[in-house]
Amino acid sequence: LIINISKRQRKYIYPLNKDRFSLYISIPFCPSRCVYCSFPSVPVARYSSFIQDYRDKLIWEIQKIRELMEGKSINTVYIGGGTPTAIPPKDLEKIIEGVYLNFGEANIKEFTVEAGRPDTINKEILIMLNRHNIDRISINPQTMNDKTLKLIGRNHNKEDIKRAYHLAKEIGFKVINMDLIVGLPSEGKDEIINTLMEIEKLDPENLTVHTLAVKRGSKFKETMDRYTVGNQYTIEDMIEETTNFANKMDLNPYYLYRQKQMMGNFENIGYSKEGTECIYNMAIMEEKETIIGAGMGAVSKIFFPEENRLERVPNFKDMKEYLERTDELIERKKKGLTFLHDNRLNI
Prior knowledge:
Elements: H1 2-13, E1 20-27, E2 29-30, E3 42-43, H2 51-68, E4 73-81, H3 89-103, E5 110-116, H4 123-131, E6 136-139, H5 146-151, H6 158-171, E7 175-182, H7 189-202, E8 206-211, H8 219-223, H9 232-248, E9 252-257, E10 268-272, H10 279-286, E11 290-294, E12 299-304, E13 309-314, H11 319-324, H12 326-341
Parallel strand pairs: 1-4, 1-11, 2-3, 4-5, 5-6, 6-7, 7-8
Antiparallel strand pairs: 8-10, 9-10, 12-13
Helix pairs in contact: 2-3, 2-12, 7-9
């Protein structure tokens, strides 16, 4: 498995290039917080008054990043969250336009937007994303079982997922990723098979299979004794089913990683049809390229190829801190990039 993944990744990652970087943009607003989520995020209904200020501050940070990375070449852009499509289309559009204004649309090899939650996806936002030549979007069901969706805090059902997927295809998106989580509360082999059968009918170009990780900061960590979860052998059987179905759909593994607190110490695996691999995912997982993070909770990972090491530069995880102290974040990035830019060190 590892050898096959390495072969698929090689042409995207090598040769290493100290002057190449990718940009991650955080939109931390979400319709609701899922029980397993540990990412920095805020409920969009309660924080709606912050959206425009956040948008403007984010665009300012993107401009400053462009100034910091002068002379470097941008590779990919990934807008994640949170749920980027939870904010009004006009605000998300201004952020995308800010990226193009600063880095040039033609210079970006790949542009991904996490649509994520189907309850935030509508025709207006999909048309806007398609008009701006977004290469790929994610529509993330996590499960296709309505009972589980309600249990984990989702405000939609499996029919909403199908509707969003078919609408995206109708509008013209050629690459759609779908995320699944193995080991969700009250799910076993029958439930994952049902989910996979529904996904098979949709036939997405990418499928990402996560094993549930019980993280600090998630509601699940505090309340997991209320739920029934599968043991290691059940999880193993469920993962085997995801592998079987991926093979049936001509989806082959192209990246793999592990997280702390994962159930059964299994892996997360990204599958794709040939030629639809997500370059950003490979870059962030293999840690062989500088990733500059913008927005609340984003983390920059500055890669020093000569030393084969990363320097992490985190942004503030609190909304008010981010809005009021963005100048400090730019200085942090500048400091972290100092040696990368120092030609005298031949790095």
